[in-house]
Design a protein that fits this description.
The chain has 216 residues and is mainly alpha-helical. It has a single domain, classed as Tetraspanin (Cd81 Antigen, Extracellular Domain, Chain: A, Orthogonal Bundle). It has eight helices and two strands, in the order H-H-E-E-H-H-H-H-H-H. Strands 1-2 form a two-stranded antiparallel sheet. Helix 1 packs antiparallel against helix 8.
């Protein structure tokens, strides 16, 4: 059940419309940074393997097989080690993910403002960011005045005044998007880790109990 829940959460994060709209963008021959998906794929793999390993543990317990329970314990130790490694990697790269996406957005924004922007897809990329995150412009003075002179790039509001007042910095929105998603991944990883620890303890207790009972 835990494996199924983890798999469900990971698949939801993988196919979330906001992240997929942004991370599948391409600026010329440059792809949007998709380091974020590394953590998602690890969660998907852990969830799928947990479901199989859980079945192995249940079958081993029903059959009172020390071999199956030992295999179950070994698989859990490997999964736990992989998850700890992934957690350390995610903690180290959590700020870098948003930073890379912001740099990609800034490059597209600069191209969208250039005269030759019609020859590339900078304007399309920027508009996708603006519409998906409901923001307009980077986190600087240029971004603050963008709704005034480039209303073709910003999400349309009822009036110009409302557009200026309600326009948020895209840098801030990118930070909010990925910090929220990474927070969910972190919670899922902690829950899985706690469940795994209990599973390892209980499987060893059961394995030792079967071994002792077989002696008598």
């Amino acid at each position: 059940l835990a494996g199924g829940i983890i798999l469900g959460v990971a698949l939801w994060l993988r196919h979330d419309s906001q992240t997929t709209n942004i991370l599948y963008l391409q600026l010329g021959d440059k792809q949007a940074p998709n380091t974020f998906y590394v953590g998602i794929y690890i969660l998907i793999a852990v969830g799928a393997v947990m479901m199989f390993v859980g079945f192995l543990g249940c079958y081993g317990a029903i059959q009172e097989s020390q071999c199956l329970l030992g295999t179950f314990f070994t698989c859990l130790v490997i999964l736990f080690a992989c998850e700890v490694a992934a957690g350390i990697w995610g903690f180290v790269n959590k700020d870098q993910i948003a930073k890379d996406v912001k740099q990609f957005y800034d490059q597209a924004f600069q191209q969208a403002l250039m005269a030759e922007s019609e020859t590339n897809n900078g304007k399309t990329v920027v508009k996708t960011f603006h519409e998906t995150l409901d923001c307009c412009g980077p986190d600087n003075a240029m971004g603050a005045i963008t709704p005034l002179w480039r209303d073709d790039l910003c999400p349309k509001k009822d009036s110009l005044l409302k557009t200026i007042i309600e326009s948020s910095s895209c840098h801030k929105k990118i930070d909010e998007l990925f910090s929220g998603k990474l927070y969910l991944i972190g919670i899922a990883a902690i829950v899985v880790a706690v469940i795994m620890i209990f599973e390892m303890i209980l499987s060893m207790v059961l394995c030792c109990g079967i071994r002792n009972s077989s002696v008598y």
